[in-house]
Amino acid sequence: MVPAVLITLLQLQLAYKFTLIFLRSTSCCHHDKSPAFLTSGKEYPTRRFLHPDHPPVPIKAIIFDLDDTLLVDVDVSHEAFHEVAKKAQSRYGVEPSLFISDAKSISQSLWEDGECRSYCESIGVSPFECLWGTFTEGDSSDLNALRKWAINYRVEVFMKTLNKQGKNGHAEAARFLSDEFAVARRSKQRLMIGAREVLLKLACTYDLALLTNGAPDLQREKIAISGLESLFKVVTVSGELGVGKPHPAIFHQVLAKLGISSLSAAVMIGNSLERDIAGARNTGIRCIWLHVPGAEEYTLDRTVAPDRVAVSLLDIPTILSEMEMGNS
Fold this sequence. Notes:
Elements: H1 4-26, E1 37-39, E2 42-44, E3 61-64, H2 74-92, H3 96-113, H4 117-123, H5 141-164, H6 171-187, H7 195-202, E4 207-212, H8 216-226, E5 234-237, H9 238-241, H10 248-258, E6 266-270, H11 273-283, E7 286-290, E8 308-310, H12 316-324
Parallel strand pairs: 3-4, 3-6, 4-5, 6-7, 7-8
Antiparallel strand pairs: 1-2
């Protein structure tokens, strides 16, 4: 009679062998479990698949996002609020920190309740951009509506902010603060660290494209101020097409203009998981998430993950070289 312990050992051995056979038969490539990247208390997995027989994939084109990828955006808006708060303090006696907090929350609230919210979301126009954009370029019904709405929106934001501070938020004061915000926002526009240097280097090897969400005149103004436009073979603004990232249609249009027929030949680089990275995934192209603290944008969809993560634009050339060698 075979002891029960020996039977158990034999069963375990058989189970182990069958497990190995199953794993070998179902595994077509080696998966490298890259370290997950931690962001704002959330953990997102990076997509990084390695195969020993996978040939290097030549990259022909790089598609860049604009705001908070090549140009500082959110921080500049915050700085503009600080400048306006100083003016409001000297003229109307407000408490600067409370003024800034109230102005930001009121602008967000009015934007969310506004009649143009749906259109703004579709092409990527933020509440803060509505505080300084004129939206004068383009004659679509949506842009015309946004142009008219934004005039009152800008004044109402600062009227309500002054009133919340217990000051007399009359229209003249609100218009003054609105104008000051626009002046400050434009004067503080600047490039992200390494933007020009990296683009000049990459332009020697790849075709470069710029794909940005936003209103035509506002994004074109930013591009002109940046001095980078000549480095791009293609420049596409969502507001000129009526559709924005992450919709794959706008990505395919950029690829067509670049003359790229193979999706593996293009890489998207941007700071927004929700728009840049999800859009690249929707389209089927590889992507690099620019994770600069304070400038990155997240998404509630935890399945959205980039192929690689860069903490600085200066990392991009090296990452692209690694991707071409088959390491992504």
